[in-house]
Structure formats: structure tokens, C-alpha cells
Amino acid sequence: MTHKTKRKLIKVFFCLFFLVLVFAPVFSIYAEGLVPCGNEDQPACTLDDLLYVLIPNVLKFLIYTLVPILAVIWFVFAGYKMITSGGNPSKFNEGKNMIIYGAVGILLVLSAYVIVEAFLKLIGAKDWVFEFMNSTK
Length: 137
Description:
Layout: H1 3-30, H2 47-83, H3 89-122, H4 127-134
Helix pairs in contact: 2-3
């Protein structure tokens, strides 16, 4: 690994570390109350709380809170690459491809539930699988 590559990786690491430090309090505020059990004056957590409350709440948090924030950062970075391409068509196309890949990624994340449910119906999964996926407590 060359010195230039090492410096680039260190810069990326510190940028990501800074972003985590900046956004961690925001994520913790939105993540509050993932499981309404186990605290003082509440009943102890059970396996049902893990399966039917925690996992769906974490998935909702990831899909509806974290993915949009990361998508905005991705699109801003892609636009920055396009603007600073300086007339270099390969760098401009790299930014354009990042926008396309970001849009496809968002569509996949938001349609993953439908894809999984369609696949389970296709293979003839039992009804309890659908009850688990659709349950809300």
C-alpha cells in the first residue's frame, strides 16, 4: 500500500468517525423505546419481546431513520463528485453512477419486505411466518 493510499484511508476513517460522533446522539434519541420492557416498573423481557417487538422496531428504525440519512449523504457526495469533476468525463460518470446505484439501493431496501414475503409465498412457507412478519404488539 502506497503512502498516498494510506493517507486517503486515514482521511476516510476520520471522516466516518466524525460523522458517527456527530450523528450518534440523534440516532440514540430516535432509538429510544425500542423495547417497552426490562426497565424499572416494567415487566421483564421475554423471547416474544425480542421477536415481536425489538426486531421489527430495529428494522423500522434502520429503514425509516438511518437509510434516508445515509442516502442524503450518498447523494450529496455523488453530486460533489460530479461538480468537482473538472470536465473529466470518467469522474462525472462515476458520480452519475453513484446516484444510480444509490437510487437502486433505496428501492431495494424499501421493497425488501415485499420481496421476502413474495419469496416465502412462492416456496409455500407456513402461515406462522407471515404472522411473525406482520405482527405488531
